[in-house]
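User: I'm putting together notes for a lab meeting next week and I want to include a structural view of one of the chains we've been expressing. I don't have a solved structure, so I'd like a prediction I can at least talk through. The sequence is below, exactly as it appears in our construct file.
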Amino acid sequence: MSESHLPSEGATRRVRAALMNKVCGDEEMFALGASIARVVDMASSDDQGTHDLAYYVVSDPALTQRILRLSNTIQYRTTSGAPVTTISRAISLLGFDNVKTTALAMLLVDALDSSEHAGSVRVELEAALCASLVGREMARHSFYQGAEEAAICALFKNLGPLLVASHAHERYREIGALMAGGKHTLGQASQMILGCSYDALSQAVLQEWKIPDMIVRAQNSLPPTAVRVAANRGEWMRQVASFSQDVARLLAQTHEPVGSPEAKALLGRYGDALDLDGARMDDLMNAVQEGMRGLLESMNMQPAPRSEAKETGNGLPNVLLLATLDAGEEEQEGAHPSGKPKNARDLLLAGVQDVTQLRATGGKVNDVVLAVLETLYGALGFRFATVCLKDVRSNQFRARLALGEEGARLQAGFAFPMTSSRDLFHLAMENDADLMISDASSTKIRDLLPEWHRRLLPDAKSFIVLPLVVGKAQLGLFYADRTLEAPEGVPPDETALIKALKGQVLAALGPT
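Assistant: Thanks for the context. Below is the predicted structure for the 512-residue chain, given as structure tokens.
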């Protein structure tokens, strides 16, 4: 594009306004922003944050599969060789912030990868994913509290190019053409075509999505000169986001960046500020390249011809393009009419191994409980599953964690008095009896169901109750149900595995 054909100032204002309206007004993009804001808000400082993240991932089967694939790649595979089969274990293995950032990356991929301009979008998606891995590596060596957030800042640093490639592809090509002329930086070219830089666009969209200010401010452009040591965490985040994007662009250009003139130039610009020397820079690039291989493998991304990437004209020839995600996955073995998987035994066995490994590596009680709940929920095909524990202050047994349909609403209502009565739940705890109810509509069973359960879960047609009793102390119970009867029942081998799962929780709780 020649400078004489550049849009006028009024035209660029209209372009920017139309783009913002398209990006933030579109229903699907609004949903994307809401989902991203929800994940970003999940706190890593307490057990509730871990539960929220696990619940969010488990509620999305495709996301669950990808996170589990990532945790079973060579980079993360456990020394025992046992496969990771639960999200709780994956979070323990990968780390809360790693799973959180990966979930955000998956949201971007799912929302944007189906664009009609898939070639350009995939180039920018890969740059965003790679930048997030650079940010993660930088956070590992930082003394700042909450440094892990740098991976999220870096992920969003490429949001502007990604959205323009998806929603205004002609403008994306025009910016690339200006860049190809060699007279303009990316910031200058985007400013000339859009009326704002890519970084400013990223900030505006993140603000619309109600993303925390620390992450929004980290998208600010840096001056082109050598970077000085940051005075605070926010400034450091901004430096890492910019550095991460630059490294991602370099890795997109070459398979062998170590020792290249471009790598040396990056070291000269960022080295002093980010405490990098030649050896650390080389280690970082090697680690990121290895991490990208694992991430691409987990998402079933495959190589594509480099010629497809030339369409972008933005100086970012692609290393790998994201292939269409395989919706089929591994062949499923089917399920009973109730929804219970026919391979429940194998799923339960894998869960037992996972929970055993979690306890052996020092997992917290809440992590163990959540892993067992997740295994019961998935392996037996329940629609709702919860763990209900004694609450002395309210003199009740109250649901503490829940998974499944309307989990939050049902969890809030799942509570009953500690005072003994002749209902099914108290009888199960008093007799320490594991109950597997295949038809909850039978008269004898309905007569034993308390009124609160009938009101809260009127459509529960089959369920299990697993009391948690240590000595004579009634600590609570696991409960999970379906909306269909389960005449297939629970055979002895599955029953033994369910009891083994419960046993792991009792062992973790210990004597009271």
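A couple of points you could mention at the meeting. The longest strand covers residues 473-482. Confidence is low (pLDDT under 50) at residues 1-8, 303-332.

User: Perfect, that's what I needed.
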